[in-house]
Design a protein that fits this description.
Elements: H1 3-11, E1 16-17, H2 40-54, E2 59-64, H3 72-81, E3 85-91, H4 109-129, E4 133-136, E5 141-142, H5 150-167, E6 173-177, E7 187-188, H6 193-203, E8 207-212, H7 222-232, E9 235-240, H8 257-271, H9 276-283, E10 286-289, H10 298-317, H11 321-329, H12 333-345, H13 349-359, H14 365-372, H15 374-382
Helix pairs in contact: 2-10, 4-5, 7-8, 8-9, 8-10, 10-12, 11-12
């Protein structure tokens, strides 16, 4: 195997989300899975299984307060003992009743203060766990025209983010996520990458944009957004998943694998750029998975996600950059396109099996997981929790 290719593949890292190991689903129903993790300790155990089988997923993102513990140093030690580290900290300012009209953009100053206080608490969690990234998704927005002053909400958003940004440790970052719509259906305060980018520019150098693959309109060219933000030095991270219609949170690489490949193609290009800003930005991107595994086995779904990212990255590394540049410079449209598609169509699985063999990892991580009996063991130990979500069954009223 080419030494440079081996080095690049060995250095790849994908961060898995704690919430992907527990029972999670749609707004309509959560189907309980046998053996799904019941707390953060079991989530870390499951993440360790994914890391053991892949070797490229040592980071675990936390969601606060879902993963709140009394002693974060103990949690950090527990993770380290399993070959893991704590990744991005994700605050939750969308579930409490007070946030019905927004969090940091709420017209009620007391609610804004409550939201900001929670975000600052999460900064403290970062300090205690060694996390470098505060990952912010805000559900703030309005449902009706005239419901609130849109410019006032923009200013409140800017002020809240600035307060939290300035409280970050020197080596930390704020990753600002955006979403086209949902749950706000008239106006979403962070409605696209441009809004997030504008806030980041105004807030400070520690603020960067986070791209979630499901948070765009149909047909949006996500790889172009990636290229633009890389060139501006403001691409901070990803939430990898896949979508068919909207924010479906399906396993990354399943509905549009060519899009995932093209995204990685831009990232590989950026990481090897002659421009210092672009290169440093690409080399410091946080690759995080954010998915809802509702009908899939939790650990196997996460394994599949990590492996899909690994395959897309490996294919992007196979692009003949010299040949691509030559075709682009002479305006040979189809030749340039074929350079990309040739790499995309390459079967990288033998290459990755060779890599795993050299690293002492299972050649087929999915088969190794199934053969290990891990899922049966945790199902026996943990049982099956009751599912939830969606409209509750109202038996007394005779409504189902």
């Amino acid at each position: 195997m080419n030494a440079d290719l081996l080095t690049a593949l060995q250095a790849q890292r994908i961060e898995t989300p704690s919430w992907g190991y527990g029972n999670s689903g749609t707004r309509f129903k959560t189907f309980a899975a046998p053996g799904a993790a019941r707390d953060i300790w079991e989530k870390l155990d499951d993440a360790a299984e994914v890391q053991r089988l892949t070797g490229i997923a040592p980071g675990v993102a936390l969601h606060i307060p879902w993963d709140e513990v009394e002693d974060y140093s103990k949690l950090k030690t527990y993770a380290s003992a399993r070959g893991l580290h704590i990744g991005a900290i994700n605050p939750n300012v969308f579930q409490d009743e007070e946030y019905k009209l927004g969090s940091v953009t709420n017209p009620d100053e007391a609610v804004r203060e409550q939201a900001t206080a929670h975000l600052l608490d999460c900064v403290e969690v970062m300090k205690q766990t060694g996390s470098r990234d505060l990952s912010l998704w805000l559900a703030d927005g309005t449902n009706y025209a005239g419901q609130d002053d849109l410019r006032a909400r923009k200013r409140r958003m800017r002020a809240g983010l600035k307060t939290v940004h300035d409280a970050l440790p020197d080596n930390a970052r704020m990753l600002v996520e955006y979403k086209l719509f949902e749950p706000a259906f008239y106006a979403t305060d962070l409605f696209d990458w441009g809004a997030a980018y504008s806030h980041c520019l105004a807030i400070g150098e520690k603020a960067q944009v986070l791209v979630d693959l499901g948070h765009h309109a149909q047909g949006v060219n996500i790889e172009q957004i990636v290229a633009f933000l890389l060139d501006e030095g403001r691409l901070g991270g990803f939430h990898f998943n896949a979508r068919r219609y909207a924010d479906d949170d399906l396993i990354v690489g399943t509905t549009n694998p060519f899009e995932l490949f093209c995204i990685y193609a831009e990232l590989v290009s950026g990481a090897n750029s002659a421009d210092d800003v672009t290169r440093r930005t690409a080399q410091n991107v946080a690759y995080m998975i954010d998915q809802s595994h509702n009908i899939e086995p939790k650990v196997e779904a996460m394994l599949q996600s990590v492996l899909n990212c690994q395959e897309a990255y490996a294919a992007a590394l196979l692009i003949d950059r010299d040949l691509l540049r030559e075709a682009q410079e002479r305006g040979d449209v189809l030749a340039a396109h074929r350079v990309l598609t040739d790499a995309f169509k390459s079967d990288v699985r033998p290459l990755l099996r060779e890599l795993r063999g050299e690293l002492g990892l299972p050649l087929d991580p999915i088969k190794a997981h199934r053969d290990s009996g891990y899922q049966a063991r945790v199902a026996d130990e943990r049982g099956t929790q009751t599912g939830g979500g969606g409209y509750p069954v109202r038996e007394k009223a005779g409504i189902v």
